[in-house]
Amino acid sequence: MNERIRVPEVRLVGPNGEQVGIVSIHDALKLAQEADLDLVEVAATARPPVCKLMDYGKFKYESAMKAREARKNQAHTIIKEIKLRPKIDPHDYETKKGHVVRFLKAGDKVKVTIMFRGREQSRPELGFRLLQRLADDVQELGFVESHAKQDGRNMIMVIGPHKKKAEAKAEKAAARAQRGTEGSSAQEG
Questions:
Q1: Residue 91: left if φ>0, alpha if ψ -120 to 50, beta else—which one?
Q2: CA dihedral 183, 184, 188, 189 (to 10 degrees)
Q3: DSSP state letter for 154
Q4: For 35-164, where are the alpha helices, taking DSSP H only?
Q5: 35 contact partners, CB below 8 Å, separation of at least 6
Q6: CA distances from residue 99 to 81, 104, 128, 134, 171 in whole angstroms, order as listed
Q7: Pairs from 45-48 (Cβ < 8 Å, separation ≥ 24)
Q8: pTM of this prediction?
């Protein structure tokens, strides 16, 4: 039994959420013991305090499971980084652009970094034009979240996706399910 009882009575709520009413603390403890449940204080600041009859272990487990489910459904934003040079070969540019497209389709942000070396630092407009070209090429998938900024020897721009990570995951799962049904119908025929 609880030895440090400071309040003479509590407002009691039953195990199914029904209002029992205002009862003495000793009666509430006796009811909890008879029902093999715990007496849990849910609103300490109320006058009189509100207590509920419940299985506290089950309550803790269910609230932990709800929190876990909420975390599972939460989208984590990831920033992928692509590094380029101002004098990039056209084929290399297409390859890097393909990576940016893939990241944006997956719902990730992309940080594009242009690295300048030696005399290239005196020509930042080359890097700026390259970043603008890339932004124009992927404009249907993403938008420029932070414009090109010179940062020492680097020029940085961040591109954000138009669709959220959760939407991209759902779309990918739907496409995978569609391929699965097409594959099974092809095997039957």
A1: alpha
A2: -30
A3: E
A4: 56-72, 90-105, 124-137
A5: 15, 53
A6: 10, 9, 19, 12, 19
A7: 46/11, 48/7, 48/9, 48/10, 48/11, 48/22
A8: 0.55
Contact 112, 137 (CB under 8 A): no
Rounded-to-integer distance, Cα 61 and Cα 59, Å: 5
d(CA 11, CA 28): 9
pLDDT in tens, the chain (189 residues): 444 557 788 999 988 888 888 999 888 899 889 889 999 888 888 888 999 999 989 989 999 999 888 887 776 778 899 999 998 999 999 999 999 999 998 888 999 999 999 888 888 898 999 999 999 999 888 899 889 898 889 999 999 988 776 677 777 778 888 887 766 555 555
